[in-house]
Amino acid sequence: MATRSPTIGLIANPVSARDIRRVVANANNLQIADRVNIVLRVLAAAGSCGVERVLMMPDKGGISAMLSRSLARERGLNHHFPDVQFLDMDVCSTVEDTFGATRRLRAAGVAAIVVLGGDGTHRAVARECGDVPIAGISTGTNNAFPEMREPTITGMAVGLYASGRLSDGQALSPNKILDVVVDGRHRDVALVDAVISTDRYVGARALWRTETLRSLYVTYADPGAIGMSAIAGLLEPVGRREPGGCAVELCPTSESPKWSLLAPIAPGMVRPVGISGWQRMGADQAFRVGHQAGVVALDGERELAFDPGDVVTVTLRENAFRTLDVSRCLHLAAADGLFRVSAP
Amino acid sequence: MARKISIKDAINEALDQEMARDPSVIVMGEDIVGGAGSPGERDAWGGVLGVTKGLYAKYPDRLLDTPLSESAYVGAAIGAACSGMRPVAELMFIDFMGVCFDQIFNQAAKFKYMFGGKAETPVVIRTMVGAGFRAAAQHSQMLTPIFTHIPGLKVVCPSTPYDAKGLLIQSIRDNDPVIFCEHKALYGLEGDVPEAPYAIPLGEAAVVREGRSCSIVTYGMMVHRSMDAAAALAKEGVDCEVVDLRSLSPLDLDTVIESVEKTGRLVCVDEANPRCSIAADISAQVAQRAFPALRAQIEMVTAPHTPVPFSPVLEDLYIPGAKQIAEAVHRALSGARS
Amino acid sequence: MSTDPLPLKKEDLLRAYRTMRTIREFEERLHVDFARGDIPGFVHLYAGEEAAATGIMLHLGDGDRIASTHRGHGHCIAKGVDVAQMMMEIYGKKGGACQGKGGSMHIADLDRGMMGANGILGAGAPLACGAALAAKYRKRGEVAISFVGDGASNQGMFLESLNLAAVWNLPAIFVVENNGYAESTSRDYAVAVDSYVDRAAGFGLPGVTVDGTDFFAVCEAAGEVIQRARAGGGPGLLECKMIRFFGHFEGDQQAYRGKGEVDDIRANQDCIRKFSAQVIGAGVVKPAELETIDKEARDVIDRAVAEAKAAPAPTAPDLLTDVYVRY
């Protein structure tokens, strides 16, 4: 079994779960204090399971400051925590911080990156992480990509993997991704869904006006998720580890679509969506976006505006990045007695 | 038709009649109804001493209980006054002014002037003043001088049920911010009050006892102590004139001057602490304007320069009484200018 | 379904640009004239923050009220206060918005729903609650907005106002203009947890954080929060992360800023430049149209300064007027 350096990376986004869905839908707010508490749980658990060093993304949104105060307090009480070091980088309080932190963590050779954020944060990390696996914790508005799981357990799984007690084959799972290309140039990715909206501006980013939606492409479709992918999930479920994805054509309910689907598009918001048709997406099949002009929303956030004449394609790619399968790790730990120590 | 009612009931009636007349009058304060959100009775209190009881049943959407949050709700009353309403906010005890004073002295008081004349802030802040309840240092003060000092505020302090109703009605109708002071020890005092609404202009003092020997100028509960002193002095042949200021700002100095020009002697009686008190203010203004009329030094009778003590023995010493006032009159009578 | 590439029609986009450019030219001109010694007292400039005031005020009418901060010129202009009267006021002249008796920090125009810039930080929050209470009684769907900065967000009366607005379900919106500095003190020091959405959530109000230098983000988010309040949905909080170009007050050497910080934000975070790029890039507006507005705005400011310099000062009797409605 390869021994890995027991250093992990941690990226906690202070500005996820702050957008307009708190006003237009019933999305909740996750306080900075709660996010710091999640980080502390992860750190404590990972530390107990062999992680000695954590490299963390700095932020000016309150997490780093409060975490530093909390760690000083914990160490003052003689509680064991891994050594936490903040990356030496400027903070601009945009997604650039996440890109930059991920690149630096990859260069530093961390065993895995723990991510606290929503789909958007995980997407930013996945874009830059290369081979470094991600252990995601949901602190965003949607729960489509990162699992809902007690952070302490995630910390334990990360510790098991980072300290080399589980192999890549045992601990990691492959993930699909969508590549978005405009006029031949690769522009961005989506982990779960890419949506074409007739809005032609980024604005407040979130999607909630269903009458503007025209096409939806998903890497997987879980009927138990919320967000745009739920639309596909409630039509034709596709598992995370199943090959291929799904493409759905949407239209306004006012234009008498073939079907109308009731879908949970945001927390506390279940709306009818007009469906013209859908099909499976195979790997490496470029789907040309039919709509003339609009904006491509990636994992629930408007990102790329495009104009008439722009050629936009969405292509599903398999084995794009790896994630830690926390459940599998803990089951293996139980089966192999990894946490069980016999009396001497 | 006048009948005998208490100051408490006179205030209640003024609020009732103005709310009936003008839908823009709203009343807010802590526990002015009482029982908000509680499982028991609504209108459980009607104000901590019951002054606003019964109004909620008549005007349920215009009586607002507030959280314990003076700077927010006094500020909100002021903001609503700038926006076309006539709020009457209760600052339960004038001693609480510290937690909301900015809204009163930097905001409400200054809008008309700072905004070049365009703003009107017709807010009334009703507040309890005075000692005698054994309520101790933080619930017994007479802080009228602090508000009187501020340009842009009006300050009113009635001593009788008749004055209380008429002055409150006028305060509500007034287009400037008014601090309406209610002496907590006078709520039960009864007097003749007409049933119909009436308004007493602000800035008018009342000569409540005519006399030739000495002018006693005062306000609030001290009017009654001064009347007690005057009654005792009358037996000695000393005939005091008692002037109830009623309105501290605007101040009816003319009535005071007229009285001093008649009697030649002045005793200012004030329940406030002595430094920068109303007594000091009146004394200085009279000395400046009517010095030739004065036949002796001006006397001031005030509380001492201490917080209000708790122990009943001490509180009774703190509050100026008829005896101290009479002694001051004697000093004014025996003193002489060379 | 709109085929417009942007959420506003061209005329509204040009109007928004004109407002932002007018604010920018007004503030930049004051910066120059203050340094020359032409202007008495203190001024606090809003340059760099234009997108916030404009994106929010776009949704308001004269019946809606705002309570501003000491840094109020941008709010005044966006709310429709006359620019010439504002300049006269800043010069302390008769005929100014407050007849020369308020100055820069107290400009108000109640007819336009502008309840005043305020020298007491946080004091506008309770006042806005009051205006919202009055709006609730009037039943015309009007709202009131309180602007505070990251510094003033620590003031007790601001926090009390969040609670009061929630308890009384007021159509009140609290906008935190988070530019990172309270005078010379960074919010990294003074604000224990730099999230005003968290504070609002603590009192049960929904909150949204947007990039305050992105006009369209502010406009869209503000629109939703305001609409919700108009419809009886109660109070909300909008946090605009932004930057200010100038110091706390004019004369502030800004020694507390990082090296090159101001140059960097002027180059990379200019909200007007971002707006221009977006509207030109979407093909809705031509550069020449914006250049015309730039010139017109400069002319308006030039005329305002000339008028202000020529206007008479108040006279001795003016000292004593307007203390009361009637004394």
Description:
The complex is a heterotrimer of chains A (344), B (338) and C (327). Chain A is an alpha+beta fold. Chain A has nine helices and 16 strands. In chain A, the strands form three sheets. A seven-stranded antiparallel beta sheet of chain A has the order 11-12-10-9-8-14-15. In chain A, strand 14 (294-298) and strand 15 form a beta hairpin. In chain B, helix 1 (7-21) packs parallel to helix 7 and helix 8 packs across helix 12 (322-334). By secondary structure, chain B is an alpha/beta fold. The longest helix of chain B has 15 residues, at 7-21. Chain B folds into two domains: 2-194, 3-Layer(aba) Sandwich (Rossmann fold), CATH 3.40.50; 206-334, Rossmann fold (3-Layer(aba) Sandwich). In chain B, the strands form three sheets. In chain B, strands 3-2-4-5-7-6-12 form a seven-stranded mixed beta sheet, with helices on both faces. A five-stranded mixed beta sheet of chain B has the order 9-11-10-13-14, with helices on both faces. A two-stranded antiparallel sheet of chain B has the order 1-8. Chain B has helices spanning 7-21, 55-58, 70-81, 101-108, 111-114, 144-148, 161-173, 221-235, 253-263, 278-290, 312-318, 322-334, and strands spanning 2-6, 25-29, 63-65, 86-93, 124-129, 154-156, 178-183, 190-194, 206-209, 214-218, 240-244, 247-249, 266-270, 299-302. Chain B contains twelve helices and 14 strands. Chain B is globular and about 65 Å long. In chain C, 45% of the residues lie in helices and 9% in strands. Chain C has a single domain (10-252, 260-311), classed as Rossmann fold. The longest helix of chain C is centred in the N-terminal third of the chain and has 26 residues, at 10-35. By secondary structure, chain C is α/β, with parallel strands linked by helices. In chain C, the strands form two sheets. Chain C has a five-stranded parallel beta sheet with strand order 1-2-3-7-6, with helices on both faces. Chain C has a two-stranded antiparallel ribbon with strand order 4-5. In chain C, strand 6 (207-211), helix 9 (215-230) and strand 7 form a beta-alpha-beta unit.
